[in-house]
Amino acid sequence: MKGKNIPNIHRHNPPEWFKKSDFGIFIHWGPYSVPAFAPAETEDFAAILRTKSPGYLFANQPYAEWYKNSMMIKNSPVYKFHKNHYGDMPYEEFAKTFKRTAKNVDVEELALLFRSAGPKYVVVVTKHHDGFVMYNTRHKNPRVGGYNLDFDFVGDLARACRARGMRFGVYYSSLLDWTFTDKPITKVSELFLCNNNSREYMDYCRNHWLELIERYKPDILWSDIGYPADSRLEDLFRYYYEQVPEGVVNDRWTQFPNWLRNSLGRKLLDMLAAKWMKAGGDYDVKYYDYRTIEYTSEWKRNDIWFEMCRGMDKSFGYNKYSNPKDFITVEEVIKTIDEIYPKKGRLLLNVGPDENGTIPEYQRKLLTDLQNYKNMNKCSYNN
Q1: Which residue has the higher pLDDT, 184 or 49?
Q2: Is residue 76 part of a domain?
Q3: Residues in Cβ contact with 37 at an 8 Å cutoff, skipping those fewer than 6 apart
C-alpha cells in the first residue's frame, strides 16, 4: 500500500475487475418513485453547477429522488406539484405505498436485462437522503417506524446479478438522512453542515455500513455527500478491505469539522461554494480509491481513476414527466465510454424503476439498444 497513512489500498492500483470494467449500472429506486416528479424544463445538474446559483439548484432540483427536500422549499416546482396532487400529505406516506408496490419487483428480470446490455457491475441505492432503507435491516429508523422494506431486495438483487457474472456494489447516503432533520437544504453550507451530527446518527450510519459489508460483501462502497464526523471511519475502511480484499470505495466520505458549523464558517463555505460550482464541483478529498463526477465527462486528472455517473435523462430517480428530448441515446453512451475509458474513467449509467420495480420503456429501450450494439460489434464497448 502506497502511503501507509491512507486506508484506501486500491487508489494507485485498483483490482483487475475494476480496470477491465467499462461501465456499470446504477439503480435509484425508493419512495420517491411513487410521485416520480422533478421539473423537466430545468437544466441538467452539471449545467446548473456552471451557470446558476446554489439557491436555484435546490429550488429547481432536477433529481426526482430529492423530492422530499424540494417539496419543503416554498413555491418550488415540487412544492407546487405536491400541493396540487397530494395537498398536505407528508412524504412518509409515499413509503407506505412503496412498501406495497415494491413487492412486485422481479430481480431476476432486472438482472437479465442489465446483463444483456453488457455492464461489468451494478450499484444499488440501499438508502437515499430520504432515509428509507431498501432491505430488511436489523437497525430500524428511530424516528420513523417501519421505514424500510420488509424483504431483502438488496440481497435478492445481489444474488441475481452475481449469478450472471456482474460485480455488485452498494450506495448509502452517509451524511444526509432527512428523517433526522426537519429543515430543507437551500444552501451549500446546509448541504454539508446541517446534517444530524449526534452520536445516535453516527452509530446508526456506521451500523448500516457494517451490516451491508457483512451481509453482501459488496465490491463497491458508494457513499454520498460526505460522512458524519465519526473518528471510526478509517476502521470501517480497514474492516471492509479485510472482508472484501478486491473491493473499492468512491470518494464521498469527507468529514466536515464542527468549527465550520458556526455562522462565520457557514458564510465562508457558501462564498467558496460559488467558485466550487463554477469549477464543476471538484475539490480535493482525503478518502477514495476512485473519484466520482456527475453529468460531465470533463476530468483533467488522468493520474486518478474516476467514475462518471448520470441518469438516462436529467434525473436518477424515475421522473415520469421527463421530456423525450432529454433521453440519452445509445450513440451518446458509446461516445462517453470511448471518451473516458482511456483516461481511467468508468461510466455508471443509472436506471430509475417505477414504483413497482419495472424499468420504464425508454430506459428499457436504451438497454436493448446497447445489447444490439454489443452483438453487432462482438466486443466490449471500449475496444
Answers
A1: 184
A2: yes
A3: 64, 67, 78, 81, 319, 320, 321
